[in-house]
Amino acid sequence: MATIIVDNKSYTVDEQQNVLAACLGHGLNVPYFCWHPAMGSVGACRQCAVKQFKDDRDQSGRLVMSCMTPATNGTRISIDDPEAKAFRASVIEWLMVNHPHDCPVCDEGGECHLQDMTVMTRHVYRRYRYQKRTHRNQALGPFIRHEMNRCIQCYRCVRYYRDYAGGRDLNVFGSHDAVYFGREQDGTLENEFSGNLVEVCPTGVFTDKTFFHHYTRKWDLQAAQSICPHCSLGCNTTAGERSGTLRRITNRFNSQVNGYFLCDRGRFGYEYVNSPHRIKRAVVRPDCDRTKPGQPEEVPQAIEIAADRLRRARGVVGLGSPRASLEANVALRSLVDPQHFYQGVDEQERQLLSTILKIFQTGPVPSASIHDAEQSDAVFVLGADLLNEAPRLALALLQSIRQEPMEQVDELKIPRWDEAAVRNAVQNRRGPLFLAGYQRTWFHEYATDTYFAAPDDIARLGFAVAGSIGQGTPSVPDLSPEVKDLTQRIAEALTHAQRPLIIAGTKSGSQATIEAAANVAWALHQQGKQPRLSFVLPECNSAGLALLGGGRLNDAFDAIRQGKADTVIVLENDLYRRAEAANVDAFLETAQTVVVIDSVEHRTTAHADVLLPSATGPESDGTFVNQEGRAQRFYQVFVPDGDVKESWRWLSELGRATSQEGGSESGVAAWRNFDDAVSATATAAPALARIGEVAPSASFRLVGQKVPRQSERYSGRTSLISHLTMHEPPPPVDHDSPLGFTMEGYRGPLPSPLISQFWAPGWNSIQAVNTYQDEVGGPLRDEMPGVRLIEPVATKASGWFTTIPRAFQPTAHQWLLLPLSAVFGSDELSNRSPAIAERIGKPFLSLHPSDGARLTLEDHSTVDLVLQGTTYRLVVHLDPSTPVGTAGLSLVPEVSGVSMPAWVDLLKAIQTEHKRRAA
Amino acid sequence: MERPLTQHIHPDGTTRTLREYVKTGGYRCLQRLSSGLAPKDLQRLVTDAGLRGRGGGGFLTGTKWSFVPMGADAPKPKYIVANGDEMEPGTFKDRVLMEGDPHGLVEGMILAGYAIDAEVGYIFLRGEYHLSAQRLTEAIAEAYAAGYLGTPLPGTGFRFDLHLHASAGRYICGEETALINALEGKRAVPRAKPPFPQTVGLWGKPTVVQNVETLYNIPHIVNQGSDWYHRLSRTQDGGTKIYGISGRVANPGWWELPLGTTAREVLEQHAGGMADGVCFRGLLPGGISTAFMTEEHLDLPLDFSSIPPEIGRLGTATMIVLDDHTCPVGFVLNLEKFFARESCGWCTPCREGLPWVAKLLMSFEEGRATSEDLSLLKMHTKWLAPGHTFCGLAPGAMAPLQSALKYFHDDFERHISTRGCPWSKKSSQQKVLV
Ligand SMILES: Cc1cc2nc3c(=O)[nH]c(=O)nc-3n(C[C@H](O)[C@H](O)[C@H](O)COP(=O)(O)O)c2cc1C
Ligand code: SF4
Ligand code: SF4
Ligand code: SF4
Ligand code: FES
After folding, report:
1. pTM
2. Domains of chain A, earliest start first
3. Can you give the pLDDT at residue B434?
4. pLDDT band at residue B433 under the 50/70/90 scheme
5. Do A87 and B388 touch (CB under 8 A)?
6. Residue B425: its pLDDT value, please?
7. SS3 content of chain B, % helix, strand, coil (to 5)
């Protein structure tokens, strides 16, 4: 800690910081543009100038850039110095030379950092009276709009896109006052994290195109904390609504999880909520006649009909869901009784998840948060395709590879925040990152070494690495010299690191890679390292569902097939994504009654005898557990129209309707509000006991008041409905959370989950987050970053996994079909968003060129592949990273029902034009 | 008067071959390295000689070298870079040397490389210097063939490689850190200092960037010693300097003269005074990023320590003369247009301020200026100061403007009061010729 003197007052600050960050951390307003808490200082904009004095005798001082000045002990500066103030106002005046001042028609208006900084410096009148330079804008794809004239040349976009996020197709062109930030030519921005440009750009150059399609001002949004449902990482988001439409998703800072950034799937995938395929009405199939389509039904009748069927059922099976909240799953489990509650996931996934839980519960190595991943100094990924399965984690690893070179930076006495200097010192040096997988992406270019192989071989590599690190670990026979070499390199890098991280995933279906990953982490732990482990899971609440437990999907199928039960309740789940279509068909057709609760139509909802419209994430309260085991709360943002209700509420109503008349209500039937759901969840499984600590309960009040979801400036409350009534209807009442659907209520410091949007006087942009942190870039004040449900208790590994698979052997006729995840295409919900849909690629089959030759297939040719009874039209990709003897199938909506991995005889299964003609 | 740098240059403009160069003592001092002159001895020799950088800043070369990490633990490789960008308007001294005597640069670089233990050298050459490029390429090839480059120097284990890189052509590429970025293939934007290139330079390694003329001095210092070198000069800064003059003088050109020669001597004795019919009004002593000097300053010794900072600085010592038939506002406008165009676009005051300044000056010329415009110009000269902008380009751009506002204030006022340029009516011949 150091003491600095600002305008003659002493402040205690962290001397590792720069003066700008130190001042902001103390709530002192210093304007800035090019500096960013996650991207450091480069000293370009000159907006953050302050006066620095040598000592207390120095009266004249000199202007310095606070972002480039270390906050060393005794640093003496003035923010209020007249010359410093005048200079800062001048910087704004210069920026205004070419800025178009089109705030009224600018999407950034009202949450623009340039507006905020202009007001902060008190610049008013621009004396420039000549022509402005103008630029041509570019079409950048479905996510981002581009309006270059508004650019103030802070260079943040390129620093973010290229240096931070590894993007290549955005750059700065030209020079002097005509620098241009864009692509070489029009075209979709390629990088999976492009959406962050919207928040990184301090003005309205890059704005959210999906928001533009149903634009409203920030202050007119009704907003609340959400948790991204589009992968297992659980990034925190702020969802904003107006007039019944979900308008946009913005990043919500959580120091442990997503920090300042989201991926594009998470930011632009929200429009499933507004989808025309939303289920808005309760639907009942008349007379149980499966030949007739369902008809909309009044809610009480629908409930009664469903309850009647449930009461008369010979047995009910409940199928839970890894994308439904914990509370919804617990509600179903309570309604059908735990022994009839089945995890609605395929058996392979269920087993992998239970292995993973066991690894965390019994092993000595803790799971890694995204923040931990960023801090890791050596990383080994086994099998998971992070860029496509857990994008934000890939972004974290792009930062982790800077950890090792940073040690040299420290030796050169360059402060870590001095990004300009750090980049020059580090150059292209990168810390160790080893990627083993079976699909190459651009992310692999950042790897120290890559290894493309079938899952069994990847597992063998993992076991071998563990074998050469640990004592008593099983060794792997028959490794090729190259793999032995690689093993050594990986083992060395991991043992040289202080905070190594091992990552594996479930997508390839390989139990062995997961066990190998655990062995590596445990071996490192045995060697006195502080390793972390991370497993990428299939869905947003896969971990929650696994912790809750439940039966096997096949047992549910059997129960119906064998007549032990005749009624099915499906919770937020498309079973056709879980099992082969024939099995699902048989299951749903054999059941007497199928009750489905879900939000968007899909193949399973088409089979519903009673279909109840459930609320999506932003329309409900709930808890997800992310892949790290962190339980996080999301809050209802708005009250949906139609019959839509939270799934747990439907289930609770069904519970009440089925309880014996006059009998006392118990279990889910007794739930009255979300707090009841949380209490029941806390007792549903031992691991869930702390669920209540995740966020304040519904009864939480501050000064006796609820917390408004609407801003102080929310407009049009009466005028919006003035054509209907002159009276202002009372706002909806929220019994489930401490939040209100109003403008009124408590305004002041809040526990972080209750913050509706980050805002402070003078700070209207997302950069208001600064004002919620004690140390800029650090945790929020009163941050409740979620509760980690699993921490290791063991101090050492009790044993090693010893089942080492045999080396993968390509066979003459069979190919191992492997799933290839796609950031745009593999997630059920985000696929429904038009902007994401535009980015989904055509389904393809990836083959090693030698296999392509063997099958006489050319690159980019089209084939029909018959798989598990269905024919898929696929484009052939010949890709040298596809292991010989395997075939990769892209997981896009058209092929979402294929179970993989699977062995397929491609010689038979592939139909080409040529073969068809021959036949 | 001794002219160590240029005495052998052929007056007919042809180059000097390796054979000629060696005949006049070239590469001789490499033997001193072989016979035990250690890098730190060489550093001390240059420090004692008081050699100051000829790129415009006048920084003590020996001091600059002393910041380079030395010894077995020092990062490897280290680099020595010759700054031959010379895009400073009016400046052509490096070209004279490189075209006339290319081996002098090669030898200077070998010695500088040896002094800081840098095994690789780059010559960063202005893109338009085709003749220099051709002659340097030949010289480098000759030096490789003769074993001065690419082979360990006998008895030292020191081996030096030298590459020529032609710039893509921006004024900012002459700024040493932008130059390093350009060499790395990045945008030519200056780097933040600290760290200085001596510790974190080209590709993150210790690097010394030295002006071409500076490097030419080193062989002579090694051959003849620091005392001799001091005696060459008339002031405390050692050595000779190439002085040049352009503008309406009788005999524009360049002369190698003792450091500390006055502007009056250069102008009157060497350049033969002003051209017929025009009178002297002022001069920019060394390129366009130096402040005007007027009649009263003509007797100041032109070196790195005799010009008081409030008057200006020497810069490159290649002067541009302003005469009374040329509008000082138009003259400065021309300069500011150049600076505005050559701003790299990295920092706000320069990127946005310089075009504004140029437009304001244009208003003066077009007769649309007001007295507020005068204060706007002054505001820019105040704000675009060292430390306020990211690099020295913008403060350099303000030097001629600020001094013009001081010395030619009446002319600015006349543009306002007469709503136009008093010169433009006279004759087209008086259009600005810089
Ligand atoms: C805008 C700008 C342009 C420059 N152009 C040149 C140049 O063309 N040649 C040069 O030698 N130095 C130039 N310099 C100075 C260099 O940055 C550096 O100080 C010099 O090359 C160091 O060499 P010296 O110590 O031998 O003088 C320039 C500086 C600035 C700020
Ligand atoms: S586009 Fe935005 S982020 Fe990029 S330089 Fe311009 S203002 Fe800065
Ligand atoms: S990484 Fe996953 S959780 Fe995070 S924003 Fe993207 S899809 Fe959502
Ligand atoms: S002063 Fe700023 S904009 Fe101008 S050249 Fe230097 S870094 Fe670039
Ligand atoms: S924030 Fe300090 S210079 Fe831009």
Report:
1. 0.97
2. 2-95 (3.10.20.740), 123-274 (no CATH), 283-345+544-687 (3.40.50.740), 351-537 (3.40.228.10), 815-917 (2.40.40.20)
3. 36
4. very low
5. yes
6. 63
7. 45, 10, 45
Handedness of CA B385, B388, B393, B398 (dihedral sign): negative
Determine whether A481 is exposed, middle or buried from the number of CB atoms within 10 Å of its CB (0-12, 13-18, 19+): exposed
* Residue A181 near ligand 2, beta carbon < 6 Å: yes
Instruction: Give residue B432's pLDDT band: very low, low, confident or very high (50, 70, 90).
Output: very low
Angle at alpha carbon of residue A534, lines to A478 and A366, rounded to 5°: 105
Q: Which of B181, B199, B346, B375 to mutate to test the interface with A (most CBs of A within 10 A)?
A: B346
State the Cα–Cα distance between residues A768 and A763, nearest whole angstrom.
Answer: 5
d(CA B185, CA B393): 21
Q: What percent of chain B has pLDDT over 70?
A: 98
Q: Which residue has the tokens 């110009």?
A: B377
Those residues with Cβ within 8 angstroms of residue B171's Cβ, 6 or more apart along the chain or in another chain: B85, B87, B88, B338, B342, B393
The pLDDT-based confidence of A719 (bands split at 50, 70, 90) is confident
Q: pLDDT tens digits for B258-310?
A: 999 999 999 999 999 999 999 999 999 999 999 999 999 999 999 999 999 99
Domain residue ranges of chain B, discontinuous segments joined by +: 18-232, 240-323, 328-432
Q: Among 3.40.50.11780, 1.20.1440.230, 1.10.1060.10, 3.40.50.740, name the CATH number for the domain at B328-432.
A: 1.20.1440.230
The answer to whether the Cβ–Cβ distance between A95 and B348 falls below 8 Å is yes
Q: What is the distance in angstroms between the Cα of A436 and the nearest Cα belonging to chain B? A: 30
CA of B188 to the centre of ligand 1 (A): 14
Rounded Cα distance between B98 and B104, Å, is 8
Interface contact flag, A421 B195, Cβ < 8 Å = yes
CB B267 within 8 A of CB B280: yes
Mean pLDDT (chain A) is 96
Q: Which residues contact A217 (CB under 8 A, 6 or more apart)?
A: A109, A110, A111, A715
If one counts every other C-beta atom within 10 angstroms of the C-beta of residue A390, the result is: 30
In the prediction, which pLDDT does A664 show? 74
Cα of A758 to ligand 3 centre, how many Å?
20
A914 — pLDDT class (breaks 50, 70, 90) = low
Residue with tokens 């079973």: A575
- A137 CA to centre of ligand 5 in angstroms: 26
In terms of DSSP bridges, do strands A76-78 and A144-146 run parallel, antiparallel, or are they unpaired? Answer: unpaired
Which whole number is the average pLDDT over A432-436?
A: 98
By the CB < 8 Å criterion, does A842 face chain B? no
Q: pLDDT tens digits for A582-595?
A: 999 999 999 999 99
B196: closest chain A residue by CA: A421
3-state secondary structure labels for all residues of A191-209: CCCHHHHHHHCCCCCEEEH
The tokens 């690689």 sit on which residue?
A486
In CATH, what is the architecture of B18-232? 3-Layer(aba) Sandwich (3.40)
CB of residue A207 inside a 6 A radius of ligand 2: no
8 A C-beta contact, residue B109 and residue B148: no
ipTM, two decimals, is: 0.95
Interchain proximity B340–A177, CB inside 8 Å: yes
CATH class of B240-323: alpha beta
**pLDDT at residue A661, as a whole number:** 66
